[in-house]
Amino acid sequence: MTGRRDFLQATGAGLLAARRWQPAATDRRSAFSLWTWVHGGAREVDLAGWRTRYARLRASGFTGVLVSGGEAAMHGEAAHAEGLVLHRWIWTMNRSGDATVKAEHPEWFSVSREGRSSLTHPPYVGYYQWLCPTRRAVREYLAGVVDGVAATPGVDAVHLDYIRHPDVILPRNLWETYGLVQDHEMAPFDFCYCEACRDRFARETGRDPLALEDPAADVAWRAFRWRMVTETVEVLARAVHARGKAISAAVFPTPTIARRLVRQAWDRWPLDVVFPMTYHGFYREPVSWIEGAVAEGVTALPTATPLVAGLYLPDLPPPALAEAIRAARRGGASGVAMFEAGGLTDAHLAAVREVLQEAG
């Protein structure tokens, strides 16, 4: 129990100064934690109801919850009352639900290689409306968003989701869903070519990305887009740490896949905990694939940064969930996070407890 208690303290709120938000190097592998993403906006569930739900999780060994929707302070009170850490889960670059930004700043939205704004021509689905991470005004706006979240009583950490570019290539299992064969980067899904990106890249390299002969093969252009997202995360991390809170993010499963599919170099980000979504079914891989995916991330990250492997419950009946947790542990994960709480049956929780007992 000491290892888990130390991990809770290391990822809780207000215990360390902003620049000392990293747990000891030994903590990453000495403690194993359980998390779940929670859609917390159910209006019919009050404080007592959420306490009951969170108590059920804690009784099965869960460490924390990553909660979107609903009243953040109420969820914090409920989670803390049941001994859980609360990360407030927010959509970051994808601002499809942000009516103010869409109305007042349409120029902030990411632009495809075809010259179409994701605000007016979202790729794949209607809610794929993305801000451009290169713009200073976007970074300042998002810093204000995360500052407000971090200032909320009961919030231990800010959890970033959609902190990336739109998918230039979808995970393999989704190609048929959209009638696509994405064996190369296609212009409608290739972002961002807005004026801010073109101007800054031109200042740095003397070249216009729209004039590149093969944008997908251009090393400098690829690295530029990784760096723009990374710089944005750095701004957000400073804002959250200034409140004495932690910052985490849901990211694509491995550094290699994240860079290739969504321009996301998450192993270079100043996060306190990283949650790669090692959703094996999305990539048509067996459960055993999780071990290698986790190992790649653990190897790439700074030694002190905990990696908590995301697991996709619709692809994991209880026996498979148990094996997925074992695979994540073998790969060196500090814990696992399950998507999402509504899919956690009693049989799933029994499988979780069984795996915890195996580890002592």
Question: What features would you describe in this structure?
Answer:
- The chain has 360 residues and is α/β, with parallel strands linked by helices.
- Helices cover 39% and strands 12% of the residues.
- Strands 6-5-4-3-2-1-8-7 form an eight-stranded parallel beta sheet.
- Strand 2, helix 4 and strand 3 (85-91) form a beta-alpha-beta unit.
Count the domains: 1
Number of helices: 12
Oligomerization status of the protein chains: single chain
Portion in beta strands:
5-15%
Uncertain segments:
1-29
- CATH homologous superfamily designation: Glycosidases
CATH architecture: Alpha-Beta Barrel
From N to C, what is the helix and strand string?
HHEHEHEHHEHHEHEHEHEH
Mean pLDDT comes to 92
Terminal Cα span: 10 Å
Outline type: globular
Number of strands: 8
- Tell me the major beta sheet: 8 strands, parallel
CATH class: Alpha Beta
Strand order of the largest sheet: 6-5-4-3-2-1-8-7
What descriptors fit this protein?
single chain, 360 residues, TIM Barrel, 8 strands, 12% strand, globular
SSE diagram, text form:
Elements: H1 2-11, H2 27-30, E1 33-39, H3 47-59, E2 64-68, H4 72-81, E3 85-91, H5 99-104, H6 136-150, E4 157-161, H7 195-205, H8 219-242, E5 246-251, H9 255-262, E6 273-276, H10 289-300, E7 308-312, H11 318-331, E8 335-339, H12 346-359
Parallel strand pairs: 1-2, 1-8, 2-3, 3-4, 4-5, 5-6, 7-8
Helix pairs in contact: 3-4, 6-8, 10-11, 11-12
Q: What's a concise summary of this model?
A:
With 360 residues, the chain is an alpha/beta fold. The protein has helices at 2-11, 27-30, 47-59, 72-81, 99-104, 136-150, 195-205, 219-242, 255-262, 289-300, 318-331, 346-359, and strands at 33-39, 64-68, 85-91, 157-161, 246-251, 273-276, 308-312, 335-339. It has one domain (2-359): Glycosidases (TIM Barrel, Alpha-Beta Barrel).
